[in-house]
Amino acid sequence: MATVESYHNLMQMLSISSKIVGVEIWTAPGRYRPASYYLSFHVIVYFLSSIYTLAKYSNDHQHQMKILITLGSAIQLYVKFFVAIKRGFEFKEFTELVEQVLLAPFQCGSPREVAVLQRTGRVMWIIFRLIATSFLSTAFVFGLYPLFAYYANGTVMPLFLYELPYYDWSTTGGYVANMLFQVNLYVLGIVGAIYSDVIFILCALYTMAHADIFMLHLHELQEILNDSAFMENDNSAMNHKWKQCMYDHQQSVKFFNSVDDLFNIIILVHVGMGLFSICDGMLLVALTDWYAAYFFLLVLFFQLTLYFLIGHYVELKVDEMYKTINSVPWYKLPVSNQKEFVFLLCRQQHPLILMVYGFAPLNFATYMSVG
Q1: Has residue 248 got a pLDDT over 60?
Q2: CA-based radius of gyration for the chain
Q3: Taking 90 as the threshold, does the pLDDT of residue 206 lie above it?
Q4: Beta bridge partners of 361
Q5: 317: containing domain
Q6: Beta carbons within 8 Å of 158's beta carbon, 6+ residues apart
Q7: What is the pLDDT of residues 44-70, one digit of tens each?
Q8: In angstroms, what CA-CA distances link 359 with 223, 311, 312, 326, 337?
Q9: Which tens digit of pLDDT belongs to each residue from 163-175?
Q10: What is the DSSP letter of 332?
């Protein structure tokens, strides 16, 4: 029961985050909640404020670049928000599929099956704590930027450089209004970033865990086929294991295809807007001495690398699946099973890797090319 309980505990943490950002996948999938309208109001005001500030400083291009460095993150988070709302039932169905097809059947299985699930649960919790700690700690450090600017340069600065229309932050009232709005949106953005990244990694990790279970059963089938004495006496165990492997492969393909389908637009926007913000940040580092640009670059590189790292491991897992399938002594199978094995090989020829909306694979080769 430990694996299912651990999964439920993680789902509970994500459910709390979903209520904060108004994307309640598990309690109200596909529905707009009061928190959804609250977040949308802040994002719309942010976009209007950015346009207003860009127009106000139209002659200062470096200042415009400092304003635009947050635009990429805002767009990608709001797109993730809309995708999660629109496809809320599908996200909920996938997380339920993980429990029904993967965790519940194998949590009391063989020691090797249980070990796969326990390892995946431990890794997932480690990644969740790492992401949460990284985002919260960097958010706290960046939150000290106005204090740093005041004590270092003697200037009063807001958290971000976009301004609310008609609320000039050079006045006391305008500064307070801008800071309250920016801190509020900042907190929502941090929670949303943690929430969206953890869901992506969770779906990918448990998909790879199911692939591990499938390969584990293939190894068991291989052991049966190589045991000639056992095959001569009883074929029922082999038939049962073969049917289990075929079913596992169908489910693994379903898992991989579902993850790619659910996250393809999210990955595209994440990569595209991440590159836009990184280019902006690198120009600011080259042209100015604005230290906040280094902070933004650190966070953006971390997020972009995280997605490509997960895509790389998914690709390695698919390659491992292919090698494991090829290692099965298929010629020892009955003729009817050999024909089914051919279909399995044919299906494996189609890539199961994560894609950037079909434009490029989400792997290190693409990462190095776009970097």
Answers
A1: yes
A2: 25
A3: yes
A4: 355
A5: 4-370
A6: 146, 169, 175, 178, 179, 182
A7: 999 999 999 999 999 999 999 999 999
A8: 41, 14, 16, 29, 37
A9: 999 888 888 888 9
A10: G
